[in-house]
Amino acid sequence: MPQPISPRLASLQHRRTVVLPFAAVLITSGLIAGCGNLPRSEAQPAQQGDSEGVAAVETAIAQTGSLDTAIEYTGTTVPVRRVALRAQTEGRLLDLTVDVGDRVNQGQVLGQVDNRLLAASVNQERAELAALQSEVAQAEAEVSNARAQVEQAQVELQQAQADADRLLALSREGAITTQAAEQAVTAARTAEQTLRSAQEQVRTRQQAVVAAERRVAAQQATLAEVQARKAFSSLTSPISGAVLERTVQPGDLVQPGDEVLQLGDFSAVKVSVQVSELELGTLRVGQPAEVRLDAFPNQTLTGEIVRISPAADPTARLIPVEVTIPNPEGRIGSGLLARVQFQTGATPRVVIPQTALDAAGEGNQSTLFVVSGSGDAAKALARTVQLGEARNGQVEVRSGLQPGEAFVVRSSQPLQDNQPVRLSILSETAP
User: How many Å separate Cα 292 from the centre of its chain?
Assistant: First the structure.
């Protein structure tokens, strides 16, 4: 951001001339009459030139600055994030371990809600879960028994079918009666039906296992819910920051959703300022801003614009602009007065008093004198400069004069290029 014009440079054009006693003797001389033709001769420096043509001059050091006076906005610091810690279960608040201003870490336990009823519910649900798991085990055992019966029925069916085949063959040969063969066939069919029944029992028992497992899963979910509610009885911090407000006290009965604490994240702070709609065009999200806090008068902090409200106050025509400031050490608290200036990004230029210009040229060109050398070797060199905007007696120099160069503000007589000069006691010198 361009630096503001130094008070000394801004006051050069207004400084009164110190006139030596012998200047009164020369008041009617051609020397004084000649100086009156120059714009800067309205106030003479403390020393007059000598008879050898050495002019006494007052110089200033060229500095970058801005013609615009930066607008200062005021606001109040608040944490970058504000979170309400709320109860998630019903019960009596047994304890709060922190108070307003205390620092907290994410995950830290800050309070405890009475959870004795929830603990009893957890035990009850665990017992129910164990019973259901026992049912699953029993159903699985029945499946195993049914499978064993299937295997036995398969063996019996194979034996019955073999007997039936053998007796049918003997019956055809006339070795046994037809009735005996038919009885063997009937026995085989009965064995086949027994096998099918055993297989159906396996499927039934397997379905019972699935149903029991579903009941176990449902009970596990119920138990997890009760355990979560019990865990919610411990109030843990969702962020790292500080306690801003304590809204309940130990012994109070809280319901789910009741606010217990207000917490603030101070890893950064934000300031909201009201900006005129006339300045809105110069601002953008991400633009740097200089912030000064009365609490830290010797520090200038750097922040940036993070939000520009799309809605202006219809009466005052002011637009809220939010600036965030890094706060890694957490020194900046809430409620501090902040003074904000936005950096426009304008190119810094050399700014000089208009009275330092010797003569106007074509367009935006003009001439001034810079001083080269020092002591008896000091000379005034004419320099053509390109001018920019002018305001309040100051003018921008776009080219022709570099920061740190000494230029003539006033002289005891009209100057010529390469003329020897002597610096007055009021002259600025380079650091």
Answer: 19
Under a CB-based contact definition with an 8 Å cutoff, are residues 410 and 45 in contact?
yes
Residues 25 and 132: their CA atoms lie apart, in Å, by 122
Higher-confidence position of 78 and 5: 78
- Does a structural domain hold residue 1? no
Q: Which tokens hold the place of 139? A: 């159903």
Residues 6+ apart with CB under 8 A from 67: 351, 389, 390, 391, 392, 394, 396
In single-letter form, the type of residue at position 382 comes to A
Residues 275 and 185 placed together within one structural domain of the fold: no
Please check whether residue 55 is in contact with residue 415, taking contact to mean a CB–CB distance below 8 angstroms: yes
Distance CA 306, CA 356 (A): 43
CA 264 to chain centre: 14
Q: What is the DSSP letter of 6?
A: P
Model confidence, pTM:
0.54
The tens digit of pLDDT for each residue in 299-313 reads 999 999 999 999 999
Cβ atoms of residues 238 and 83 within 8 Å: yes
**Is pLDDT above 90 for 21?**
no
Q: What is the mean pLDDT of residues 54-68?
A: 85
Residue 5: is its pLDDT beyond 70?
A: no
Q: Which residues of 88-126 are buried (b: 16+ CB within 10 A; e: fewer)?
A: bbbbebeebebeeeeebeeeeebbbbbbeebeebbeebe
pLDDT of residue 49: 45
Same structural domain, 107 and 244: yes
Check if the beta carbon of residue 40 is closer than 8 Å to that of residue 407: no
**Integer Cα distance of 303 and 81 in angstroms:** 16
Task: Report the alpha-carbon angle 55-58-59, nearest 5.
Answer: 120
Tell me, what CATH number does 62's domain have?
Answer: 2.40.420.20
- The whole-number pLDDT of residue 69 equals 67
Q: Give the residue from 30, 60, 61, 63 showing the smallest Cα distance to 412.
A: 30
* Alpha carbons 336 and 343: distance in angstroms, whole number: 22
Those residues whose C-beta lies under 8 Å from the C-beta of residue 76, and which sit 6 or more positions away, are: 271, 272, 335, 336, 337, 338
**DSSP three-state, residue 302:** strand
pLDDT average, residue stretch 224-247: 90
For 103-218, strand residue ranges (E) read 103-104, 109-113
Whether residue 430 is contained in a domain is answered as: no
Phi, psi of 405 (to 5 degrees): -80, 145
pLDDT of residue 35 exceeding 60, the answer is no
